[in-house]
Amino acid sequence: APPKAIAPNGEPWADFDHEPIHPPAHRGAMYWTAGIAGAGLLLIGAFLLYNKVFMPTPEELGAPAPIALPTPDMVKVESSAAPPEEAKVEEPEPEEPKPEGPAALAPAPAPAPLPEAAAPAEAPPADAAALIAEARKLGFKPRAEQLFLQAAEVAPGSSEPHSGLALLYLNQGKNAQAKQRAEQAIALDAKNDEAWIVLGAAEGAVGRNKAAREAYMRCAALPSGKHVAECKRLVR
To answer: Which of 19, 49, 180, 194 is deepest in the core (most CB within 10 A)?
Structure first.
């Protein structure tokens, strides 16, 4: 057996005989502390190793080249360059002075006669156009019928008074008269879109749907006109 420790007073130290110097709980804490410290040193060493060995330097990443600042000599050369040429504005030429006295009063020579142009298509007389315009302003009132009839007498070759009358009769419920006037207008001018659309409406009002569609199709085939778009919608 190991010898017992003796205190200065000659008595043995019984505590040393029964209890260890470091209890088991204290030893476990020491192991944990030492392990944490060792792990920390290991992480620090790995971080330094990565930055020194594996991490590329700025030159390897392609750092931008330094920008050269202009030197005083460069500034002098640029300032000595010739300035850009300013745009030249052309001045208007001065007009020649007009002669004064008897020469200024001399008549100018007569211009050469122009070649004769082809005569334009005959248009309705001005009074017929005024009658038609006034009749359209009245809408479907009885007075409008008289104005259209007067315009038809003044301009017998115009189809507009007849198509205007056809539209008036159609809105008054006189389908037979509307059809008759529309056909008269088409006989004078086959491009009268108003006459075609009124003819189609008059035919449809009495149940002749095939004839009505044919009239609408003739109207829709015209190159232009106030009612052409409506005719195209009706034949869809």
So the answer is: 194
